[in-house]
Amino acid sequence: MADRSGGRSGQNNVTPLLTRRGIMLVLSSPSGAGKTTLSRLLLAEDPLVELSISVTTRPRRLSEVDGRDYHFIDRAHYDVMVATGELLEWAEVFGHCYGTPRQPVEAALAAGRDVLFDIDWQGTRQLVSKVREDLATIFVLPPSLHELERRLRRRAEDSDEVIERRMAKASDEITHWEDYDYVVINHDLDRAFADVRAVLAAERLKRFRQSGLADFINGLRAKLPHAVR
User: Fold this and answer.
1) Which of 19, 55, 137, 158 has the CB geometry, 3.0–4.6 Å to 180, for a possible disulfide?
2) Helix or strand or coil: residue 127?
3) Burial of 147 (C-beta count, 10 Å sphere; 0-12/13-18/19+)
4) Which is nearest to 26 in space by CA: 183, 191, 151?
5) Where are the domains of the chain?
6) Would you tell me how many other CB atoms lie within 10 Å of the CB of residue 94?
7) Residue pair 72/56 in contact by the 8 Å Cβ criterion
8) φ, ψ at 108 (rounded to 5°)
9) Whole-number average pLDDT of the chain
10) 43, 116 in Cβ contact below 8 A?
11) Residues of the chain with pLDDT under 50
12) How far apart are CA 111 and CA 136, in angstroms?
């Protein structure tokens, strides 16, 4: 009698172990469009995803923790990291420098873990030029500029002057949406989060990321009757 797995009762059908290389999942958006909130939701829900912690030369905000939100370093240290190739990408934003340390990202990918990046279009372009096959990139848009400004003011972390600068910068950032693989419009946080999860699920199934897949297929074909191989 056949069992529900499609084999015969008493047979020990063992599926070969498939592993995969991790994904570098990039979320970019104008400040206030929702990428940081989406990142936190994904990290809380999926244990296979870890956050790439950037280095930065900007001062730490009161709500931030060194080593959790950023690695806060001085400009001299930052310049050494750039010069010695320790950063995968780097950029200057509003007079402060940011960058992604290379070593922890490479270790995570090799172990099959996914690394989440909360970076801008400049950093994304650098990653595309260096590690394109490891990347999946998502650009998050606000439903309107009015809503974007409302969100910036609601979080009450920046002065009016800084908010005005962020709004001016947003008009430029939005023009880079075509550089990304996917675009998510954050009308509703739950729906936007579902879209991000769907992208990650699909990217994990891409055949070139699954090690051992060819051996698994060959094993299936070896068990087929000769006439239908």
Assistant:
1) 137
2) helix
3) middle
4) 183
5) 20-210
6) 10
7) yes
8) -65, -45
9) 86
10) yes
11) 1-11
12) 18
In one letter, which amino acid is 36?
Answer: T
- Pair type for strands 135-141 and 24-28: parallel
CATH number assigned to the domain covering 20-210 = 3.40.50.300
Structure tokens at 102: 């290379």
pLDDT of residue 219: 86
Task: Give the pairing type, strands 49-51 and 114-118.
Answer: parallel
DSSP 3-state of 25: strand
Classify the C-alpha dihedral 131-25-164-191 as positive or negative.
Answer: positive
| Six token digits for residue 70 | 């950023």
Distance CA 199, CA 193 (A): 10
Axis-axis angle for helices 189-204, 35-45 (nearest 10): 60
pLDDT at 213: 87
For residue 11, what pLDDT is reported? 47
Residues in Cβ contact with 2 at an 8 Å cutoff, skipping those fewer than 6 apart: 8, 9
For the entire predicted model, the pTM comes to 0.79
Q: Which residue(s) pair with 140 in the sheet? A: 184
> SS3 for 58?
coil
- Written as six digits, the tokens of 169 are 């910068």
